[in-house]
Amino acid sequence: MSERSERIMSTGIGEAPCAGLELGHALITMIEPDRETLAAYNRWYERDHFLSGVLAGPGAFAGQRFVATRDLKQRRWPADSPVARPVDDGSFITLYWIERDQLGAHCDWGFPEAARLAGLGRMNTDRHHVSTSYYDLVSVTARDTDPVPAELALHHPYAGLTVVWSNDEVADRLIGPSVSQVVTFRPAAVAGLPGSIMSDPDRDVFVHCCFVDDLGLDLHEALAGVEPLLVAPFRPTVPGTETYLDELW
């Protein structure tokens, strides 16, 4: 069975999608900013780096930032997470979609471009990476018969995003009344990124991006019997504003 056929089956849709741009990879980066320079960091990231550091590159066609306010951090589990140490580390997560078969071209552009921007004084180091990796698409699992295409998921006004890191492919268990779709990835073999659990060759890690209609979603029952590496809810940022910056800690 081809990769395209597997993806169609995972959505539960019988007809093949129209030929055109197709999601194939992602850059997912969860970071913790320095508290003293939070406002300046936020402005730099969304007004410069979000655009020039990733979305201007080949193959990148969508991106969205999400934030974990302190109330959402309190709902993370398990407490002893190998992804976030401590478990409330990582106030922001950004998802970038990359076109199928374009990851190599994007990385060939991205690493030299980051060095160029650093030389211009346009890289901000007032943060640390909790988990930053490139990924290959595994599956798209949708709740509805005519779902929002995964390619448009970062444009659709979902209430939030719950990210589940696990050693198991559990997308079918995650879909439900409040979960519109689950876009599942596994780490791609790309060198040169900050070390994390994703670069551990002894682990088989899946990242399930659950696009939710209800920020009150509780996945404990859905994941009964599974030991996730981290379950972390986020809400969308409000670009161009300082909304939620005073609610992180």
Task: Characterise this structure.
This protein has 249 residues and is an alpha+beta fold. The protein has one domain (3-12, 21-247): Alpha-Beta Plaits, CATH 3.30.70.100. It has five helices and eight strands, in the order H-E-H-E-H-E-H-E-E-H-E-E-E. The protein has helices at residues 3-11, 38-55, 70-73, 103-119, 171-174; strands at 23-33, 60-67, 92-99, 127-142, 160-166, 179-187, 206-212, 230-236. Strands 1-3-2-8-5-7-6-4 form an eight-stranded antiparallel β-barrel. The N and C termini lie far apart (47 Å). Mean pLDDT is 91; it is low at 1-16.
Task: Briefly summarize what is shown.
The protein contains five helices and eight strands; from the N terminus they run αβαβαβαββαβββ.
Describe the protein's topology.
Blueprint: H1 3-11, E1 23-33, H2 38-55, E2 60-67, H3 70-73, E3 92-99, H4 103-119, E4 127-142, E5 160-166, H5 171-174, E6 179-187, E7 206-212, E8 230-236
First-to-last CA distance: 47 Å
* CATH T-level topology: Alpha-Beta Plaits
CATH class: Alpha Beta
Q: Which range best describes the helical content: under 10%, 10-25%, 25-40%, 40-55%, 55-70% or over 70%? A: 10-25%
Mean pLDDT: 91
Number of domains: 1
Shape, principal axes of CA atoms? globular
Structural key phrases:
single chain, 8 strands, 21% helix, Alpha-Beta Plaits, 8-stranded antiparallel beta barrel, alpha+beta, 5 helices, 249 residues
